[in-house]
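Q: What would this complex look like in 3D?
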Amino acid sequence: MRAAGERLYGTTDLPVLLPPGERLLRRASRERTDGVPRLTLKAWHGAVIAAVVLLAAAAAQAQGAAEARPGVLTALWKWVPLLVEGFLFNIAISFLGMGIGTALGTVLGVMQISLLPPVRAGSWIVTQFFRNAPWLVLLFFCMFLLPFEFRVMGFVVPFPDWVKATLGLSLPVMANVSEIVRGAVQSIPSGQWEAAESLAFSRRQTLVQIILPQCIKRMLPPWMNLYAILTMATVLASVVGVSEVMTLTQRVLSAESRPELLVPFYGFVLLLFFMYCYPIARFTHKLELRYVVKL
Amino acid sequence: MSSSSETAATQATWTPDRPIVSIHGVHKRFGDFEVLRGVTFDVMKGDVVCVIGPSGSGKSTLLRCINALVPIDEGSIQVAGQEVHDPKLDKLALRKKVGMVFQQYNLFPHKTALQNVMMAPIQVLKQDKAEVRERALKLMKKVRLNGKEDAYPGELSGGQQQRVAIARSLAMNPDVMLFDEVTAALDPETVKEVLVTIRDLAEEGMTCMLVTHEMGFAREIADMMYFTDNGVIVESGPPKEFFANPRDARTKEFLGQIL
Amino acid sequence: MEDFFQWFRWLYDETGINLTILYDSFDRERMVRGFFNTIYLSLICLALSVVIGLVGAWLQGSPLKWTRRIVQGYIQLFRNTPPLVQMYFFFFALGSLMPRMENEYGIMEPVLSNWHWAIISLSFFAGAFNVEIFRSGIEAVPRSTVEAAESLGYTRLKTYIYVVLPLAFRVCLPALNNNLVNLVKTTTLAYAIAVPEMLYVANQIWSDSVNVPEMMTFLLLAYVVLVGLLVHVMNRWERAMRLPGYGV
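A: Here is my prediction, written as structure tokens for the whole assembly.
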């Protein structure tokens, strides 16, 4: 017998407005599986950041007009191509990191639901380890402990900083993807496993044909949210000296050495991230709504 | 009732004069709790058997044991001569013989009704797709759902989903069908359409084992009634006798409550 | 105790595993301070972020539209930008605008040190999450429960103290804990503005003693154990506080 509440949420096709407490608990438990807070970007955030950049630039412009130096906007404009190039590097790192993290994480997540206790325990430990370690520490770890080149059969394979940073960022992604996969698989009702089993599907067939396809829809929103978080985390690579957008910004700022440039330049970096992450957050939100309604 | 020496002999050669499902002294424990405490009975081919009893009496567990969804601790269950309580059990072969329908339907929500019916024969039995499709369409017609082939489970009513689930099991051409409280989760108005489908099956001579609370239906279609309580079979008999004058006090009490 | 520490010097001589933080009292003290700095930073930011959360939640209930909008703007801004950039923005951009003062040695220095900025930026970052959490938690207490309490003769204040807040707290707890765990992990960012927490101290030590692998491994394990313990304790606490039939 189903409880009355469960029936209400489970069987109706109408959007159900959950009471706030339940909404909060659901979000908390979802954030726990995702391992990262959810991104809730809105269009006006971009407008605010853009306004800050422009206002600060204009104010500084007015201030600096007295001195015989090029205006703040001119300075910003001069450096935009370089900064955008740096930002594209961030995107490249995020793609690569997400790819590696997802591939490893999916394997790890499936291992977490293995029937073999040692495999299950091992993958659980690995997952928890990389989930609990701060991103920055993992980044340092990969930065300093991976060699700068590999020798494979006499060939020297260089291993530049940005590759190491990418690996460092993909480790927490891996752990979070692993939890997302495990959470999604466990959210599939056990009846699905039983039904497939009684139809003579093997465990592997059940997983590949029946369980995982149903999981994809559930995994997509947290996975995309994780991607946006990873994109924002790529700035951490600046701490270990990879020439991505934040590093370049700081170099430009120290080369220009004009304090009035600080606010517009940092604001511009925020704006770049916003313009990239906002559409992702929008789309994620849409997907999530669709999923909540159609349970 | 077959002794254990006969059991071994029947392993390879099952003939229609022997029970198609033979349950002997089955025990099942979940931790400290013993759900089944020595259950024994036979089902002949073409029989319709109804198991009733209070909730928690082990009826559903018994069905799950027959399908090897739940391993048993002691005793023997044979399906068409194949021993289920055997570490080397060929589960695929067993499940080809035994179809099961669940209380919560358990359709695969990411596949259409027709795909649900076709999936297992194609992916598990590796049968020809066109052939399976033809058979699946016939089955959809048989459960009176022609026209709903392309609907997703979420778009079907409970009764319709349950009939798709029946068709899905039938697509494997089983010898025995197990029905585990298949109408318990349904709205009263859709219960009937599912029961009609099961009755059609029974009349065609399909061997059916039902765990049910639908007493009227059980009286109508069953060849044999079993009443379980506390993990044992308390009383059994043909429905007429069983309902008219139950002998055991517990059966009387249960029927008194429910009828 | 000293023997225990000296064993690691022997370990270094024998195997080259150089754990200066154990046998060298200077490094050891530095590391211990770094560890406590991380804890201190976490705790003080936790406390401040809870205060920010409570004030924010209270302000969000304000009848003034613009008050609510400003709080909402604050929440969204801090939730959706990289915390590292926030910290840079605070320390470099806002810090550059702060007046300078003469310190006791007669050197001009900013009114707010890197410590202050780290605390401010991390508290505001975590506080943005807390506002939403507290607000939903208080909303979660059904109106009927409040009415029941009031009809039993509770005053408005007592209703809050004995009924609303205990219930709201239980609802908030899982989300608050997520936030706390995140906060502890985020304190590593203070490294970027030279606050001597664990990561920063570890960096100093490995620059001095050239024992990067040892320090890196130690650091990683230290964080994993610290956060793992925290998660474990929080989970147990949540289980103990869970009310049957209330929430998920």
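A: To summarize the key features: Chain C touches chain A through 52 residues (CB under 8 Å). Chain C has a mean pLDDT of 82.
Q: Very helpful, thank you.
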